Amino acid sequence: MALSLSWKVFALFPTNCCSLFLRAVRSSGLPSFPWGHCPWRGAGSILDPEMKAFLEENTEVTSSGSLTPEIQLRLLTSRCKFWWEKADLWPYSDPYWAIYWPGGQALSRYLLDNPDIVRGKSVLDLGSGCGATAIAAKMSGASRILANDIDPIAGMAITLNCELNQLNPFPILTKNILDLEQDKWDLVVLGDMFYDEDLADSLHRWLKKCFWTHTTQILIGDPGRPQFSGHSIQNQLHKVVEYSLPEPTRQENNGLTTSTVWHFQP
Ligand SMILES: C[S@@+](CC[C@H](N)C(=O)[O-])C[C@H]1O[C@@H](n2cnc3c(N)ncnc32)[C@H](O)[C@@H]1O
């Protein structure tokens, strides 16, 4: 099957393709997003109608091909035109939120199968992307949820994905919290966040502080990315469960075959 190189490469190697996408955004001459100065998107907030229409037109609702068929998501699939078209025609920032990454899939599967981990707990989904892991936490009875992602469009996609799953939207924060004072959370979950070395270092520092300050439980989902497997965080991890990835996820992720949930205990 012929595939649009730019999107597929982005899906396979997100770090390498960041520059490609950033260049595309810059060369488009677009200003930053109109909602960029309003990082808090409270529960049930109203989506900008134009943006909602854009997202609905350029994504497909799907629940197949992942580890969690019980969660429906709007994603970029081979039936969407931007799967085929050149990436520089995409007018916004890199759409990490349009892919359900293997690390997030493993975490979500684990929370759905083990609701006791989250029931009645406060949960932060850091780097939430499409919001699937936060949705899994909500479905499993978490009492308080915050989905955090630096991409404002991820915030919109998460709101749409909550609606798709007949859930009342939970709070979504679209700003970088890694340099801010930490709130207390019972559980922090991170799906596929260790794809860049500098980000991995920042996350490691932040997670250690979170653990020592608030005795927060921390779960990380990762499919064996080198920035994770080769990081010093490895000495502070305990394997919780490993999942075999479904065939469509394997194909979209350059042959990765498994994804693992790790417990971080510094
Ligand atoms: C590879 S995606 C994983 C998304 C989701 N957790 C999943 O597994 O499907 C990484 C996400 O982290 C977000 N991200 C990157 N740096 C971040 C930061 N400092 N704080 C919050 N989110 C960040 C990106 O915008 C992106 O949505």
Automatic annotation (TrEMBL):
One of its GO terms (cellular component) is protein-containing complex. Its main location: cytoplasm. The keyword Kinase does not apply. This is Electron transfer flavoprotein beta subunit lysine methyltransferase. Interacts with HSPD1; this protein may possibly be a methylation substrate. Belongs to the methyltransferase superfamily. ETFBKMT family. It is found in: Cytoplasm; Mitochondrion matrix. Keywords: Cytoplasm, Methyltransferase, Mitochondrion, S-adenosyl-L-methionine, Signal, Transferase, Transit peptide. It catalyses: L-lysyl-[protein] + 3 S-adenosyl-L-methionine = N(6),N(6),N(6)-trimethyl-L-lysyl-[protein] + 3 S-adenosyl-L-homocysteine + 3 H(+). SUPFAM superfamilies: S-adenosyl-L-methionine-dependent methyltransferases. InterPro entries: Methyltransf_16 (IPR019410), Ribosomal_L11_MeTrfase_PrmA (IPR050078), SAM-dependent_MTases_sf (IPR029063). The keyword Cell membrane does not apply. GO terms for biological process: methylation; negative regulation of fatty acid beta-oxidation using acyl-CoA dehydrogenase. Residues 1-19 form the signal peptide. GO terms for molecular function: heat shock protein binding; protein-lysine N-methyltransferase activity. It comes from the Eukaryota.
